[in-house]
Write a structure and sequence with these properties.
single chain; alpha+beta; Aminopeptidase; Immunoglobulin-like; 4 domains; eight-stranded antiparallel beta sheet; elongated; binds 2-acetamido-2-deoxy-beta-D-glucopyranose; RNA polymerase II transcription regulatory region sequence-specific DNA binding; zinc ion binding; calmodulin binding
Length: 780
């Protein structure tokens, strides 16, 4: 059907005068007060303009089929690319352009938005095309309105059609407000002059006109309101609000700071738990952090709302919140990068561009400013050193990285010491610019030239991470509604709202990877929405969309197993390792001997180990019910102490030397069986039935092994008699494939390799994955 454009301004006109530029650009925005703009009009005195919020080009509340354009340069620059702050995909086969671009062959250009209901339009915001090279933007345009998309009225100033000044670069959004609100259903922007190709992105400001006849509208109003402070907070307002929450709920809150930003602002945190200020044995610690990028202001406000909500609901006796607060130590850090937020806040929610305030004052992206432990860890894994030489968890930070001048931001350092000083179990960082949850690894491995691909390492706890991500995405009101695509490209999540970061947009040195490799804490990223800094009027809606998801995700900290590792006297053992068979990622106990291991429902063989104690393995069952399964461990003193005594008797020299002569590489020490007391054989037997049978089986195995050792020794004697051999050698006995309980205590890691001066050999590479700390005597 033909669309008649009437009257279309056909002639390009120069801007009228400097005065107009001043009027439109400067005066309007400088005289804002309480949503009304007062401007001194040249001849008619004081005017006031109402300011409406964005209709939702950037937030995607405006759907693609509400947009129409006169022409399209190529599909990838279609009308759906006209959203404020939309990003080009940056790939070579760039299917997602950084703006709507018109066909240069056409004479008349316009883009049209159908608000679907009668709307009071008050202004438009325009922006050029996102592109690393080109500078394409619209520098002037007319605006037209219609109620039927056929009859169009071009906005005029009473004398002539009103030409608006547009952009003068490709990134900075420029706001133009109308002298008076215009009521219509359709709005058109008619570009008149531009630089480069005619490309633009935009946002439209408007308020729906209330229609008393329409029942539909009122029925769809959000009925449940939490009555929180739904405004944006600058630094001082945030401080004031957090203090007031802390004053309202002194019994369950503690207001503290992680440290100072580059410019000296505090990185504030709110602790919410039943006994704030201390870690309670058995109570897991949880964290939400936000504002790594200062312009991603939504996460900050969401966390401020969450604090208010938890405080108020706790006082009101909400049983769910009571349970959560009493059983969890919750830390909320709304603004990790307060300096950046300050910059973005000054420009306001719409005009800050995509990146203003993203970085710290001294130029760091905090989220990806953490020491890269991935490469260290993967390298060790490739060499078969995990977990025997390099632990599969708590990977140490290489010396000097944190102190090297200026490469790690002060904000990052504050976060690292905070992460190290609390036994966090689960956390999420709230970000913006997308609507999805990402799970680690965030980094992909280096380019593999031989296979011509980027290798992506799967995280050991992948299925658990996917569950955690889904627990948020699926309880968020709109996160899985991805049929319109993602914020900037096609939906990368396959409709689930979750994606592996390394597969999607890999980054090195991320908080999530660091947290997983260096601490016990599992950390994910939650991207709250396309609009990083939504208008204040969106905050209530955003809270409603996220509230359930925020609570559900927090409750996941009570999934899996938890417990305390103690010695026989009941003293807690800190720094003990708790490992789950089949998952090559351990956790360690905290200062009070408590540990948490997030796990999906299932049956697990769990082993606790500590230096100086015999390891102990037991079966722990994780059900589908909420609440972690209690799995305590009481460890016996290790036989190693007694072995040490025996060694001391022998002048601390190895008692018997066997070397793998066949390979000609390296020597290993071992102890002959008769020097190890018998009582050790029962140590590994799990409680409960089957103990006797096991004991008998172990006795049998032991005899077999002793026989084998004898044969070995015999062989050794033979070979030493060969004149050519200078060292004592022995043929290696093939390792038994039976995976039985080790016949005596595991060999303590450090000490084995103190004695063994040679690096691990090939035989170890093959069994590096079968994840066993226990050194069987047969292996040597
Ligand atoms: C659209 O309709 C409304 C109400 O009927 C009217 O006030 C407004 O002026 C119309 N707008 C245009 C552009 O015709
Ligand atoms: C206009 O576009 C041209 C070519 O794309 C570019 O070289 C030039 O810098 C742009 N001008 C401005 C003021 O951005
Ligand atoms: C704090 O706890 C005390 C005692 O447990 C109680 O009397 C008081 O009312 C509580 N205060 C608030 C604000 O809940
Ligand atoms: C770091 O840089 C500052 C100034 O650039 C300098 O004063 C300081 O000595 C440097 N510190 C180290 C450890 O290099
Ligand atoms: C914890 O144990 C590991 C070995 O399991 C050891 O390397 C580390 O130094 C210990 N840490 C502390 C704080 O004791
Ligand atoms: C600890 O030793 C006692 C006997 O000394 C034994 O009965 C018990 O099973 C052992 N427990 C563990 C966890 O090894
Ligand atoms: C090995 O040889 C030594 C002396 O060469 C001898 O004393 C010892 O009994 C032999 N051991 C065995 C097991 O034959």
């Amino acid at each position: 059907k033909p669309r008649i454009h009437k009257p279309p301004p056909r002639v390009y006109r120069e801007p009228k005068s400097e005065w107009w530029g001043l009027g439109l650009g400067t005066l309007y925005s400088n005289l804002l007060c309480e949503g009304i703009v007062y401007i001194k009009f040249f001849f008619s005195g004081l005017h006031c303009l109402s300011v409406c919020p964005p209709l939702g080009m950037e937030s995607h509340r405006i759907e693609n089929d509400q947009l129409l354009t006169s022409s399209v340069y190529q599909h990838r620059y279609g009308s759906h690319r006209a959203r404020l702050n939309i990003q080009a995909s940056g790939e070579e086969d760039d299917t997602n352009g950084g703006a709507w671009c018109a066909n240069p062959e056409e004479k008349v250009h316009w883009i049209e938005l159908d608000a679907r209901t009668l709307t009071e339009f008050t202004g438009v915001i325009t922006q050029g095309r996102d592109d690393p090279l080109e500078s394409d933007y619209v520098s002037s345009y007319y605006v037209a309105f219609s109620n039927d998309s056929r009859e169009w009225t071009v906005l005029d100033d009473g004398y002539a059609e009103w030409l608006f000044f547009g952009n003068s670069d490709k990134n900075t959004p420029v706001l133009s407000q109308f002298m008076e609100p215009v009521v219509a259903r359709y709005i058109r922007i008619l570009p008149q002059s531009w630089n480069g190709t005619m490309c633009m992105r935009m946002e439209v400001l408007g308020c729906p006109v209330p229609d008393p006849l329409s029942q539909y509208q009122s029925q769809n109003e959000v009925t449940h309101r939490d009555d929180l402070d739904y405004t944006h907070h600058n630094y001082l307002d945030m401080e004031k609000l957090m203090k007031s929450i802390s004053d309202k709920c002194p019994n369950i809150t503690r207001f503290y700071s992680l440290g100072k930003s580059f410019k000296g602002l505090e990185i504030y945190a709110m602790e919410i738990t039943d006994n704030p200020g201390m870690h309670e044995t058995g109570e897991p610690e949880f964290r939400y952090t936000a504002g790594y990028h200062g312009n991603e202001a939504l996460g900050r406000e969401i966390l401020l709302m969450l604090m208010q909500y938890l405080c108020r609901e706790y006082k009101d006796g909400n049983p769910r919140v009571h349970h959560l607060v009493d059983e969890t130590r919750i830390h909320l850090v709304p603004s990790v990068n307060p300096d950046g937020h300050m910059k973005a806040f000054e420009k306001g929610s719409e005009l800050g561009s995509w990146t203003l305030g993203h970085w710290t004052e001294d130029g760091h992206d905090i989220f990806q400013n953490f020491p890269d432990l991935n490469n260290i860890f993967w390298d060790a894994e490739d060499k078969g050193m995990v977990p025997k030489l390099i632990p599969n968890h708590h990977v140490p930070i290489p010396e000097g990285i944190l102190s090297s001048n200026g490469s790690v931001a002060v904000e990052t350092l504050a976060l690292i010491s905070w992460m190290e000083s609390h036994p966090f179990v689960l956390g999420a960082n709230l970000q913006g610019g997308e609507r999805l949850v990402t799970y680690p690894f965030d980094m992909r491995q280096l380019w593999v030239p031989s296979r011509k691909l980027w290798e992506i390492r799967m995280i050991e706890d992948q299925s658990l991470f996917r569950w955690l991500a889904i627990s948020y995405a699926s309880t968020h009101r709109t996160m899985t509604q991805t049929f319109q695509g993602g914020c900037h490209a096609d939906d990368p999540t396959g409709g689930l709202g979750i994606v592996n970061r390394a597969k999607w947009k890999p980054i090195p040195g991320s908080m999530n990877d660091f947290s997983y490799l260096h601490t016990n804490c599992f950390e994910l990223s939650i991207f709250l929405g396309c609009d990083k800094f939504p208008h204040q009027s969106e905050l209530l809606r955003e809270w409603e969309q996220n509230r359930e998801a925020l609570l559900t995700f927090m409750a996941q900290v009570h999934r899996g197993i938890k417990g305390v590792v103690r010695d026989k006297e009941g003293n807690p053992i800190s720094n003990a390792t708790v490992s789950v068979e089949g998952v090559n990622h351990d956790v360690r106990t905290g200062e009070s001997g408590d540990y948490w291991r997030l796990l999906n429902p299932g049956e697990y063989r769990v082993t606790a180990r500590a230096e100086g104690y015999s390891p102990f393995t037991r079966l722990c069952v994780v059900g589908f019910d909420p609440g972690a399964t209690l799995c305590n461990f009481d460890l016996n003193k290790s036989n190693w102490d007694r072995i040490k005594q025996i060694m001391a008797l022998h002048g601390n020299r190895p008692i018997r030397l066997l070397s793998s002569g066949n390979r000609g590489s390296g020597q290993r020490y071992t102890y002959s069986s008769n020097q190890i007391p018998n009582s050790k054989f029962s140590n590994q037997i799990p409680n409960g039935n089957g103990g006797d049978m096991n004991r008998a089986r172990l006795r049998r195995l032991r005899l077999m092994r002793i026989r084998r050792l004898r044969q070995q020794r015999l062989l050794a004697n033979k070979t030493t008699m060969l004149p050519t051999t200078t060292t004592t050698t022995t043929t290696t006995v093939p390792p038994t494939t039976e995976s039985t309980t080790p016949w005596y205590d595991s060999w303590p890691l450090g000490e084995t390799f103190e004695e063994n001066t040679t690096p691990p050999e090939e035989t170890e590479l093959t069994d590096a994955l079968d994840y066993n700390y226990n050194y069987k005597i047969d292996d040597y």
